[in-house]
Specification:
Rossmann fold, 7 strands, two-stranded antiparallel sheet, 166 residues
Length: 166
């Protein structure tokens, strides 16, 4: 089972990137592919910055520009048969500070063993939470080379491997 990083979805949407066709091929493969709310937020942010593309799509599919990003997200999920999994809104306590959103707490805990950038660390936190809830995720599919730097730690500590779209 694979966790699909937002970078792969961004690559699939960008025909000017030489990795675009490989990203699409990977997304089109059969199998159980999971995304989190973080993937949706990250993808929304990237899409929102492409104003010209948004205007063209809005006119083409006749969807109000304000509703276009959610429509694109839904299209991507359906088109590539992705499974969205939420971590829920539970807020465990962080000793001395109080309650904190579970993915944030998990990222804080993981930061001591994995040297990753914030968003990458949050993706791993989502994976850990989803695994703890029964999802059998063993692979991160990504276009982000920074994950490769942490590959040994991810495999050793979390039993997660990396598939880099390069």
């Amino acid at each position: 089972m694979s966790y699909i990083d937002a970078s792969v979805m961004v690559l699939a949407l960008d025909p000017s990137d030489p990795r675009s066709s490989r990203a699409k091929e990977r997304l089109e493969r059969e199998g159980y592919k999971v995304i989190s709310e973080l993937v949706l937020v990250e993808l929304s942010s990237v899409i929102s910055k492409r104003r010209e593309l948004l205007r063209e799509l809005s006119n083409e599919i006749q969807v109000d520009e304000g509703k276009l990003i959610p429509a694109i997200l839904l299209y991507m999920v359906k088109r590539f048969n992705l499974t969205y999994r939420s971590t829920g809104a539970s807020k465990p306590a962080l000793p001395g500070l109080g309650r904190i959103y579970e993915p944030m707490l998990t990222a804080i805990e993981l930061s001591g063993i994995l040297r990753l950038k914030t968003l990458d660390l949050l993706h791993v936190a989502y994976i850990v939470i989803l695994k703890n809830r029964g999802e059998r995720i063993s692979l991160i599919v990504t276009g982000d080379e920074d994950f490769k730097k942490a590959e040994a730690g991810l495999a050793r500590n979390l039993k997660i491997n990396i598939e880099l779209i390069d």
